[in-house]
Q: What sequence folds into this?
């Protein structure tokens, strides 16, 4: 069997194994190996097993991973990657006691980002997003779902999605585009919100679909933003144009978005901090993947995290994502979200690894190729500078990814980062 890249003698090779009906378990192989040919994984197992089945030829690159852990590339299933400028002043205001909802009602929040994005050119948006993608990669993330939603006009939503398409050509991180025209009602439609919904449903969705600029159609269903009735109209229009539904639901209140997700057969329902048992049952029956975003709760200084244990007990394939955006979670670190899920939602290290690989792939309809290390899967993997996968959420707030492989190629290597002149002789110290 031809092999282009061979990772051997890893302390652990760790992967979820799909078990049908959205279930999975984590497999941990000690002294593990992964063999890659072209863009695909061809063998996974103990170093002994893999070396016995694959032949090392000339040209095979070999990575010795002693003391390190290999996992599938992480998948971030919910981000607002494309935005201009920042909202650092809102961050400061929150430290002084103003809430996210108060700031939004006063014209800040999403609408502040809309004003900034509309002034930015495609080139400026691309230039701002590329270093963000570098940071995702440095955190072991090889696939990122990316939403529009700061344009809120036909031209600016198209501009945002074209930026995502261009970024996908320029950067090794794989992007999955989502239209979020119904993220907020823009300033100029404040007193005629139905006209904005008409624009979204009759013009933005059809044109985005015709130009194949987005795979999913999302909506922010929340008190003060879009009601269940309005969100239903958006998601059904998206479906009619072949865009799979996603929804921001039950983030600040229980407003019925989770039940709507079940009703329309959404691929995922995201946030879910305020769901109840009946909502969880509905999601389970309809096969909707819950995407939990503890970083947004943490960053807004709130304390109501989604009831992950209730969802896991009901058999839901819980996914975790960053929600990366300038307002509610300014971080590209999916490992940090794993830590928050462990400490604030009582998920285990095994559950958070599954939640950021296979279940995250399920949340963007990519489970047939991403999120697992198995023969035939796309060769996306991370070599972490830790001897045990549980150290990924345990040692938090630092970059632990050593080497990142996307579609069979090494696309990131962590720089050494030791202090200049760190080792001094006694005389130098004196
Ligand atoms: O997922 N909930 C709505 N959308 C974002 C917030 C975006 C923003 O504040 O810019 C979220 O938290
Ligand atoms: Fe979001």
A:
């Amino acid at each position: 069997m031809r092999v282009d890249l061979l990772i051997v003698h890893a302390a652990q090779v760790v992967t979820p194994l799909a078990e049908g009906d959205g279930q999975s378990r984590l497999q941990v192989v000690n002294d593990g190996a992964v063999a890659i040919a072209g863009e695909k994984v061809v063998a996974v197992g103990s170093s002994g097993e893999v070396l016995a089945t694959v032949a090392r030829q000339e040209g095979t690159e070999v990575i010795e991973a002693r003391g390190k852990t290999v996992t599938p590339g992480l998948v971030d299933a919910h981000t607002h990657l494309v935005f201009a400028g920042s909202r650092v002043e809102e961050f400061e205001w929150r430290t002084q006691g103003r809430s996210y909802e108060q700031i939004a009602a006063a014209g800040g929040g999403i609408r502040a980002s809309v004003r900034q994005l509309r002034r930015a050119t495609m080139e400026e948006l691309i230039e701002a997003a590329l270093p963000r993608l570098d940071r995702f990669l440095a955190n072991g993330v090889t696939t990122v779902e990316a939403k529009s939603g700061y344009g809120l006009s036909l031209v600016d939503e198209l501009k945002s999605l074209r930026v995502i398409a261009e970024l996908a050509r320029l950067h090794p991180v794989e992007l999955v585009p989502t239209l979020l025209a119904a993220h907020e009602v823009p300033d100029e439609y404040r007193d005629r919100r139905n006209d904005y919904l008409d624009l979204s449903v009759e013009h933005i969705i059809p044109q985005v679909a015709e130009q194949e600029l987005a795979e999913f159609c999302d909506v922010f269903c929340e008190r003060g933003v879009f009601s269940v009735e309005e969100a239903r109209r958006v998601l059904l229009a998206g479906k009619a144009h072949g865009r799979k539904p996603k929804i921001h639901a039950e983030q600040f209140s229980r407003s019925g978005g989770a039940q709507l997700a079940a009703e329309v057969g959404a691929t995922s329902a995201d946030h879910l901090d305020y769901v109840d048992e009946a909502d969880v049952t509905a999601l389970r029956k309809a096969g909707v993947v819950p995407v939990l975003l503890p970083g947004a709760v943490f960053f807004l200084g709130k304390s109501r995290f989604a009831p992950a244990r209730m969802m896991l007990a009901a058999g839901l394939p819980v996914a975790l994502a960053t929600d990366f955006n300038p307002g509610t979670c300014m971080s590209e670190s999916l490992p940090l979200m794993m830590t928050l899920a462990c400490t604030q939602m009582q998920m285990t290290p095994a559950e958070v690894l599954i939640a950021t690989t296979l279940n995250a792939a399920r949340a963007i309809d990519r489970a047939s190729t991403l999120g697992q290390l198995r023969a035939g899967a796309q060769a996306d993997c991370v070599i972490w500078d830790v001897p045990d996968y549980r150290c990924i959420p345990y040692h938090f707030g630092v970059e632990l990814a050593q080497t990142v492989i996307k579609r069979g190629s090494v696309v990131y290597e962590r720089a050494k980062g030791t202090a200049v002149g760190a080792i001094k002789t006694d005389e130098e110290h004196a």
Q: What stands out?
A: The chain has a mean pLDDT of 96. The chain has 17 helices and 16 strands. The CA atoms of residues 4 and 59 lie 7 Å apart. The first strand starts at residue 5 and ends at 18.
